[in-house]
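Progress note, sequence design subtask.
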């Protein structure tokens, strides 16, 4: 038996890896950064991969299950992740594997019928939400989850409208740094653009809400099904951990005429939150003469020498930021 750690698979190895995963009913995820292969003779008998701090595509040949190969894979992947500076690891798998990964010091965060999300910190998500400020947890408590890439008048309108309907409103800004504007800048812009609202608290989502960790697809063959499961897992994380901590009774969303994925997510919220005691309120998107205000449209205007068009889409706080960073 040979153990191989690869920073990229090519040619024959990649083909054998993809064939092995397909045989295990897994969809090969070509975005992985590192892959561990365990060979017997010239055949793969186990594999696992890492993408940033997420472990995925873990599979053991049925003929070799019970030989401790999962522990071997996780040891290799953990060492690789720690060497790259990742101290908090996630994995997602099928619910039937819960006991196996629990025995290897991974702890459940949330699950649906199809997906189980786990992390390697026993109280990770509880510790995270508990350290977030919660000034009011009784009454009509609202929440909205946003990317704000960057913060526009549309975002501000939704927050102002929602805040007017609540005793307190929590805004959770996506923490992942996979947007044009950094997580730190997006947080700062939301805080600046809502500073006039005394009943609004702005928090980062952390690594849990609407993140890569909560959006698994690699073991779901049907892409449409994968999108639905993505939404359901994120909703489960929100209801299981965030809503109880903050006493959230209402979730606010903006209508979404431009993004099919966001519209699907909104539909899932409307279907699944009310049975859990959380009312969903859809607020019509704010419009200007050109149509609905969109951060995508705003980003397309940056660097084009059209500051007056940009000014129509953003509050003064965002406009100053764009000017100071020479983006308009």
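Output:
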């Amino acid at each position: 038996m040979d153990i191989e750690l690869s920073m990229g698979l090519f040619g024959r190895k990649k083909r054998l890896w993809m064939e092995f995963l397909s045989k295990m009913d897994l969809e090969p995820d070509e975005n992985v950064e590192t892959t561990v292969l365990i060979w017997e003779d010239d055949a793969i008998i186990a594999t696992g991969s890492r993408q940033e701090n997420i472990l995925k595509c873990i599979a053991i040949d049925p003929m070799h299950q019970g030989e401790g190969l999962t522990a071997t894979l996780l040891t290799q992947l953990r060492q690789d992740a720690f060497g790259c500076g990742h101290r908090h690891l996630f994995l997602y798998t099928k619910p039937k594997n819960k006991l196996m990964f629990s025995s290897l010091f991974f702890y459940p965060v949330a699950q649906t019928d199809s997906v189980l999300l786990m992390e390697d910190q026993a109280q990770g998500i509880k510790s995270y939400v508990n350290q977030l400020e919660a000034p009011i947890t009784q009454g009509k408590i609202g929440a909205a989850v946003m990317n704000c890439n960057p913060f526009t008048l549309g975002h501000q309108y939704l927050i102002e409208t929602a805040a007017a309907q609540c005793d307190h409103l929590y805004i959770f800004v996506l923490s992942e740094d996979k947007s044009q504007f950094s997580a730190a800048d997006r947080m700062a812009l939301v805080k600046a653009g809502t500073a006039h609202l005394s009943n609004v608290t702005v928090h980062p989502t952390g690594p849990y809400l609407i993140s890569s960790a909560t959006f698994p697809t690699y073991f779901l063959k049907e892409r449409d099904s994968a999108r639905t499961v993505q939404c359901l897992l994120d909703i489960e994380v929100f209801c299981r951990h965030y809503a109880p901590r903050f006493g959230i009774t209402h979730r606010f969303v903006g209508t979404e005429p431009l993004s099919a994925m966001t519209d699907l997510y909104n539909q899932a919220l409307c279907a699944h939150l009310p049975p859990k005691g959380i009312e969903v309120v859809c607020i019509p998107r704010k419009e200007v003469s050109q149509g609905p205000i969109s951060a995508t449209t705003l980003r397309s205007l940056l660097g084009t020498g059209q500051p007056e068009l940009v000014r129509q889409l953003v509050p003064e706080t965002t406009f100053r930021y764009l000017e100071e960073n020479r983006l308009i």
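The radius of gyration is 22 Å. Work on this subtask will continue into the next period as scheduled.
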